[in-house]
Amino acid sequence: MSEKQEEIVEDSVVDSTEETEQAVSVDSVEEVVEVDELTLVKQQLEEEQDKAIRSRADFENYKRRVQKDKEADYKYRAQPLLLDILPVLDNFERALAVNATTEEATSLVKGVEMVYRTLLDAVTKEGLEVIEAEGVAFDPNFHQAVMQEKDDSKEPGIVLQELQKGYKLKDRILRPSMVKVNE
Amino acid sequence: MSEKQEEIVEDSVVDSTEETEQAVSVDSVEEVVEVDELTLVKQQLEEEQDKAIRSRADFENYKRRVQKDKEADYKYRAQPLLLDILPVLDNFERALAVNATTEEATSLVKGVEMVYRTLLDAVTKEGLEVIEAEGVAFDPNFHQAVMQEKDDSKEPGIVLQELQKGYKLKDRILRPSMVKVNE
């Protein structure tokens, strides 16, 4: 309440009933203003509280999403390097496919096999797995058919031969197997 | 204002100045209560607003930290696999150190060199680097001294020989070089 309005109230009490009536009237207008400010502030408070609830929820959602992203990042962290290592594994297989005839070559091949095994251990530890192919039913999610053949001794739709190994990282296909399928 | 109090105000206006005085007095007590609630709600509003500012700041800090963590995770994502590949690189070097005499062995070594190069390309792409050793000043942050020798033709404290390659992933040492140092 302003100073001026307080003066009016005091005057009214001292002077007359009529004046007092006026004073009460002023006072009740003043009260409406007070109530209005209170309502307004209460509204603001409520809005602020609603906002707080929403932003707490946003924060929690964000944290959950971050955690999920982090887990996925962690799970597949080796993917870029593994993708570049797949040709290394292919080359190893090709190098080891030779038939060594001399003792020197045989010993070399043995050495290379050991190196290959160390690399296989390392990539397996990170979650790399060879996709099953030969003898299983062709599945376009895992296999890429590059040839077909008719072998009556085997069921149709069976993978007859694996032409290039396929790999997955945990539940994610990095490269499908290239296969020959029975018609 | 309650109904009962309003009645008192009306009565006072109609009845007498004395009664009116009393009414105004009641009214002003009522006003003090109103103002108190307003002050209280305003205080609550202010607290709520402060809290909102603080939690916005917390959220921003959290986001920044998450971003920083994410960048570090991304930067060093290949570290676990690379650590397991270091022995593979060592074995490659050992396998390639042989002196092939037969044509068969020579061709095999060439094949293995190609495989090694493919692997080196893959790990280099992910940020793996060989630590400089031979001919540079010994630095305990990068080198592990396993032998000492006295070579007067070279400066003291110089790395004379690298016994095992050391590697770093970007700015992080994965394994120091094992070296022979000049006394």
UniProtKB/TrEMBL annotation, chains A, B:
It comes from the Bacteria. GO terms for biological process: protein folding. Residues 35-65 form a coiled coil. Keywords: Chaperone, Coiled coil, Cytoplasm, Stress response. GO terms for cellular component: cytoplasm. GO terms for molecular function: adenyl-nucleotide exchange factor activity; protein homodimerization activity; protein-folding chaperone binding; unfolded protein binding. Its main location: cytoplasm. The keyword Cytoplasm applies. Residues 8-21 have a biased composition (Acidic residues). It is found in: Cytoplasm. Pfam families: GrpE (PF01025). PROSITE patterns: GRPE. Residues 1-28 are annotated as: Disordered. Homodimer. Participates actively in the response to hyperosmotic and heat shock by preventing the aggregation of stress-denatured proteins, in association with DnaK and GrpE. It is the nucleotide exchange factor for DnaK and may function as a thermosensor. Unfolded proteins bind initially to DnaJ; upon interaction with the DnaJ-bound protein, DnaK hydrolyzes its bound ATP, resulting in the formation of a stable complex. GrpE releases ADP from DnaK; ATP binding to DnaK triggers the release of the substrate protein, thus completing the reaction cycle. Belongs to the GrpE family. PANTHER family: GRPE PROTEIN, GRPE PROTEIN HOMOLOG, MITOCHONDRIAL. This is Protein GrpE. It comes from Psychrobacillus insolitus.
